[in-house]
């Protein structure tokens, strides 16, 4: 039924390549099937001005797509002079998702900047970016512990994200572009390793979907995230 031939509850081929960038304190090339995103984490030894003197740190994110990440070329947003609303919404989502599993007091007055660059897009770029960013962030924080700058990792849980949708009347896991572009409903689930809900974005594309359908999507997302957090841990060797 699915264009890819996957079962309803089957993720795409998921691959993490931590330490991809030579210079960043943390990095990961993450691949959800044909969607490839490079995530890097940069440590800055100062907090943003609004946190100065609070003893608390911050995690922020930027997101962008390369011009030929999609079927046709898209101008760089820098060339257009401003970011689209979609870009701003996605990078805020990435930042919120990572901060949800952080103890920012333990991080102290420093900021970590996450950069997510979409090399190739085939659906689910925001969920791919969140899932890969956790790996990059973990690496960056581990470097602070290794240097004895921090006494412990300031992370309270893992976080990963996956898309689900109603495709040809069936709830399916991890939509690729062929499914996402024609789905009757689609949703993005950001969940923690322990099963906590960070954020859910769900939209009916054609007609309203039912509460049982929503619960079916949530159950699929939980199954998918369970796999993703296991793959994150394997990639990090923890």
Automatic annotation (TrEMBL):
<dbReference type="Pfam" id="PF03725">
    <property type="entry name" value="RNase_PH_C"/>
</dbReference>
<dbReference type="GO" id="GO:0009022">
    <property type="term" value="F:tRNA nucleotidyltransferase activity"/>
</dbReference>
<keyword id="KW-0694">RNA-binding</keyword>
<comment type="subunit">
    <text>Homohexameric ring arranged as a trimer of dimers.</text>
</comment>
<dbReference type="InterPro" id="IPR050080">
    <property type="entry name" value="RNase_PH"/>
</dbReference>
<protein>
    <recommendedName>
        <fullName>Ribonuclease PH</fullName>
        <ecNumber>2.7.7.56</ecNumber>
    </recommendedName>
</protein>
<feature type="binding site">
    <location>
        <begin position="124"/>
        <end position="126"/>
    </location>
    <ligand>
        <name>phosphate</name>
    </ligand>
</feature>
<dbReference type="GO" id="GO:0008033">
    <property type="term" value="P:tRNA processing"/>
</dbReference>
<dbReference type="GO" id="GO:0031125">
    <property type="term" value="P:rRNA 3'-end processing"/>
</dbReference>
<keyword id="KW-0819">tRNA processing</keyword>
<comment type="similarity">
    <text>Belongs to the RNase PH family.</text>
</comment>
<dbReference type="GO" id="GO:0000175">
    <property type="term" value="F:3'-5'-RNA exonuclease activity"/>
</dbReference>
<keyword id="KW-0548">Nucleotidyltransferase</keyword>
<feature type="domain" description="Exoribonuclease phosphorolytic">
    <location>
        <begin position="10"/>
        <end position="140"/>
    </location>
</feature>
<dbReference type="Pfam" id="PF01138">
    <property type="entry name" value="RNase_PH"/>
</dbReference>
<dbReference type="InterPro" id="IPR036345">
    <property type="entry name" value="ExoRNase_PH_dom2_sf"/>
</dbReference>
<dbReference type="InterPro" id="IPR015847">
    <property type="entry name" value="ExoRNase_PH_dom2"/>
</dbReference>
<feature type="domain" description="Exoribonuclease phosphorolytic">
    <location>
        <begin position="157"/>
        <end position="224"/>
    </location>
</feature>
<dbReference type="InterPro" id="IPR001247">
    <property type="entry name" value="ExoRNase_PH_dom1"/>
</dbReference>
<dbReference type="InterPro" id="IPR002381">
    <property type="entry name" value="RNase_PH_bac-type"/>
</dbReference>
<comment type="function">
    <text>Phosphorolytic 3'-5' exoribonuclease that plays an important role in tRNA 3'-end maturation. Removes nucleotide residues following the 3'-CCA terminus of tRNAs; can also add nucleotides to the ends of RNA molecules by using nucleoside diphosphates as substrates, but this may not be physiologically important. Probably plays a role in initiation of 16S rRNA degradation (leading to ribosome degradation) during starvation.</text>
</comment>
<dbReference type="InterPro" id="IPR018336">
    <property type="entry name" value="RNase_PH_CS"/>
</dbReference>
<feature type="binding site">
    <location>
        <position position="86"/>
    </location>
    <ligand>
        <name>phosphate</name>
    </ligand>
</feature>
<dbReference type="GO" id="GO:0000049">
    <property type="term" value="F:tRNA binding"/>
</dbReference>
<dbReference type="GO" id="GO:0016075">
    <property type="term" value="P:rRNA catabolic process"/>
</dbReference>
<dbReference type="InterPro" id="IPR027408">
    <property type="entry name" value="PNPase/RNase_PH_dom_sf"/>
</dbReference>
<keyword id="KW-0808">Transferase</keyword>
<dbReference type="InterPro" id="IPR020568">
    <property type="entry name" value="Ribosomal_Su5_D2-typ_SF"/>
</dbReference>
<keyword id="KW-0820">tRNA-binding</keyword>
<keyword id="KW-0698">rRNA processing</keyword>
